[in-house]
Amino acid sequence: MFATAPARRALRLTPLAFGAALLCGLAHAAPADGAAVDAPAPAAADAPVATVVVKGEQDAGYTTRSSASSARLDLSLRETPQSVSVVTRQQMDDFRLDSVNDMLANSTGVTVERIETDRTYYTARGFDITNFQYDGVGSPFVFGNVSGELDTVLYERVDIVRGANGLMSATGNPSATVNFIRKRPTAAVKASVSATYSSWQKRRIEGDLSGALNEAGTLTGRVVAAYQKGDSYLDRYSADRKVIYGVLEAKLSRDTTLTAGHTNQTGKSNGAMWGAIPLYYTDLTPTDYDVGTSTATDWTSMRVEHNRSFVELAHRFGNGWRAQATLSRNKSETRSKLFYTYGTPDRATGLGLYAYPSIYNSDIKQTLFDASATGKFTLGGREHDLTFGANWSRSTIDDLSYYGQGIGNPLPSLAGWNGAYPEPTFDASTNGSEYEDKRKSAYVAARFSLSDPLHLITGVTTTKADSAGTAYGDSRFKSASKTTPYVGLTYDLSANVTAYGSYTAIFNPQSETDATGATLAPMEGKTAELGVKSEWFNRKLNASAAIFKTKQDNTAEQAGMIGTRAWYRGVNAESRGVELDLSGELARGLQASAGFAVLKLEDEAGNAAKTYLPRRTLRLLTTYQVPALPQLTVGASANWQDDIYRNEADGAVIRQSSYAVLGLMARYDINKQLSVSANVNNLADKKYLTSLYWSQSYYAAPRNASVTLNWKY
Q: Which of 328, 351, 492, 587 has the largest CB neighbor count within 10 A?
């Protein structure tokens, strides 16, 4: 049967579809690079967890009106009994926060540990962040750190929920959860294109096109693409990345919506570092190399490709309830050819470093399913909120290391080294991993309206987590299940000010064994928090102050060797602190995002723990639209942290003194569609190390600048 005339009209594509095709073509217009190879990472310290959430249509300004990141209920930030910071699309655009690393580095209480050029850890409240979410669906870091520079062009907003977050992420560390809210299609046609030129010949182009794809408006779509390429202040390092995201939304009926989307990001770097530069000499004094010093050779490279697909079905019932099911499939492929250097150099000669070449290939696959329902019910003459659901995930990793000939060969001094080292054959030996991780959770939570000013949020999550397989000769078997609680209480002191308290827990199965060979019990983490939140100017400004106490118990720590087998013990750590957060419009034309965090982190003996983490941090982003010249917006950024250090086994103490990094921005609107902006980073040209998470590090970027031309419709 042929379609009737009305049906043919409803299915007819608009010119937007042609524009989307052009945008997709633009994303793939850049010449393809050959495959690169990836190398194994040295063992990392425990990772703290933070929660970041991105969601919905673009929030105007520097705050959001609501978030479901903490308890799966759509609440204002004032009504949420947990610390939540927001990074909006406007902040990312104003300060060119084009990568997740840059975005999180400007977030309250979060530390970005750039341990290498292409791998990163994140921490909050003294512990590693090990949970990312996409539109509220968890994607746990079951295999460690993040490879490659993840792009932010795909997202409308990111919410960061600090502390344990048992309802949204029942497993992990009591640090934070990061929830990325993807851009979604719009019914009205929207389009934007921007081009950026930066220091070290870095070029970037972005495109974003959205609108209805048929005359009836029942099918909408959006295509987002970005391409970036450039050199670096680091010797021999250059990188490019390509991002393409497409999403379709179909109204199957007035109340039922089907959404499907796919993201591909491919990043390639030449001169990638595995590990970094040594930080002290044999006489235990600190090294002081040029800012651009790198341990990479001229043949090292890394290629990382991320693919994320999702299908989401949502239905609104006539009684105000809403149900949603999401199926996601994620794949990450790494191919790298890297060169690690180890040893301690002599101050006089610079000699004492040795070669460790390796090829590392890995394939990580994740399948995730999440189903939930949210609505209201009446009890005792008052209306309350209820949400419940379940999720399941399966993650697998296959990786293989090919170690090169010449391990242990002496190297020349890094001072003045040009990276010339013959590329070896990679057939000395091989090793690798092959294991899987499965997690199943079910949860229920309710927000009870006990009185007009008093609300109780309580819930529980039951989770079973299992792993099996091996990693570099060690068993990865672990199996545990646990029920974690969540409870929060809010009391409205006035129409704008709310006091709150909350308690939430989390756990993490472990595969390490003790001296008897028995598997350690799961790590358990929990957070108790008290605070005050306020909102002003019709929710355009949010402010909060919180005190917290976070514990992580029974974390595996190597305690000794029995023959060739390492054995572990469980250790406890506790962090306490204060967090102040402000985001939104302070006055007409004045936007700000500011956060100050104070942390005290100790082990069970009361000694300072993880001294490589700063105890005080300040984050500030602010812009001002000049009243006398409303086309002009100016702004500034400031990132400050106090001093950090780490004690080495041979008696050396590695230190990074406190520092502040300042930035400036300005944007001029030529007309309603066209604007030009400029950004300067590290204005004072401060020299500092990116991290002391490991015993090696490298220097952060010196002063740099960019200019962006933006067109929007």
A: 328
